[in-house]
Amino acid sequence: MVDMKKKLGLFSIVLLGINAIIGSGIFLLPNKAMALMGTASLAVFIFNMFVVMSIGLCFAEAATYFNKSGGPYVYAKEAYGDFIGFEVGFIKWAICIIAWATMAVAFATALGQIVPAAQDPMIQNIVVVCILVGLGIVNIIGVNVSKILNNVVTVSKLVPMIIFISLGIFFIKPSNYSPVFIETTGNFGKTSLLLFYAFTGFENIAVAAEDMENPQKDLPKATVIVMIIVSLFYFFIQFVSIGILGPELAHIPAPIQTAMGMILGPFGSSLVAAGTLVSIGGINIANSFVTPRCGVALADDGLLPSFIGKRSKRDTPTYAILISVGIAIPVALSGSFATLAAISVVSRFAQYIPTCLSVLVFRKRNQPTEFDFKIPFGPVIPIFAITVSFWMLSQATLEQLLWGLAGLLIAVPFYFIMKKNRQDQIKI
Predict the structure, then answer these.
(1) How far apart are CA 269 and CA 164, in angstroms?
(2) Which has the closest alpha carbon to 96: 273, 281, 325?
(3) Where are the domains of the chain?
(4) Rounded CA gap, 351 and 347, in Å?
């Protein structure tokens, strides 16, 4: 029997969610938003807060019906059947592996900015492999080690942001908030899609449900808490960045680091640089924990070979971890990451839209549980989330849509191969 002390409680789930969302982007994002929308970028953050919260609430309600791993895959499968579920689950595992590989490279790159010797390509590759293999070993050792490491790193990455916001408000110049609108204010849709990417990752919270003490009770609470915390951090970081740097923010590649340098001198810049490194490291830890469990959920339902879902005596999915690491290493070393953002943005909606729709299905079909959580205002919020999701997809370029569609198409032959294997086994 698995020791419940080694499972994730509410506090650890919240930190896992924050860690899975907040990465290097928030340290670099303010300048891009300022360049596209000026001070009006604050309105885009507020809009995205409502969008993400509405989608997050759908995930929170869907989580009350199930206590097994898989997240979006489980919701899609239970609502619409094996094929749609497999499409969602397969693309999620693939994207998680690619995203983890990319974050490993991002960590090595960020390390090179602090330690010049680490800029050497050979050393960067060694760092990348060490990160992927090292975190794979940590996850094989057990959930408790991953939990402790995740909690420490998450708290550490939040410290520089809390200091920046707390001190930065005293250095704000009100004149920097005008004019509110600039010539490129018409880029609202483009900016929304860009900033939305910074919020992605919350869907990973539910993937590791079986490693939580009480997922049906804690997941809804954790999802709401995580989205509120992340949304407030993002808004106030943008608000303070504009207040300190003004129009120049649009042209500064590392805005928070620059602003902290103005507040605390070289120490402030170094603090943010270290925070960026810890932040990217945190994303790696969260990805290393969530990624293998995407494959486990598919294997448990017979949609992938059963050995992938097999757990060790420590209750960790050893084979899924080894496969994830084994694929992530060549992806990371290939250096072909130019289209990652395009694939990721579009494919994420392939998880969000089915989950929001599934809530409406579960309400009519499933019996309420003792941890029943219902989104207020009936179907209004799920319908709003679905509508805005399609609108955001319409803001993507044709290339982004094609890459996202390609990911879904790749999953089709795998599904039918596994389906045929299952049918052959039944005949035997």
Answers:
(1) 11
(2) 325
(3) 4-421
(4) 7
Examine the pLDDT at 339 and tell me if it is beyond 70.
Answer: no
Alpha-carbon gap, residue 153 to 29, rounded angstroms = 21
DSSP notation for 185-206: GGGHHHHHHHHHHHHTTGGGGG
Q: Give residue for tokens 């694939």.
A: 343
What CA–CA distance (Å, rounded) separates 406 from 190? 22
Q: Which CATH architecture does the domain made up of 4-421 adopt?
A: Up-down Bundle (1.20)
Q: Which tens digits make up the pLDDT trace of 76-100?
A: 989 998 899 888 888 888 888 888 8
Residue 3: both structure tokens together = 């020791």
CA 419 to chain centre: 30
The model's pLDDT over 41-63, given as tens digits with 9 standing for 90+, comes to: 898 888 998 998 899 889 888 88
- Cβ neighbours for 233, distance < 8 A, ≥ 6 positions apart: 22, 26, 158, 161, 165
3-class secondary-structure state, position 23: coil
- The Cα–Cα gap between 328 and 244 comes to 40
Give residue-wise pLDDT tens across range 192-206: 887 887 788 777 776
> pLDDT by residue (tens digit) across 222-237?
888 888 898 899 999 9
Phi and psi angles of residue 212, each rounded to the nearest 5 degrees, phi first: -110, 150
pLDDT of 2 > 50? The answer is no
Beta bridge partners of 212: 8
* Amino acid identity for residue 88 in this structure: V
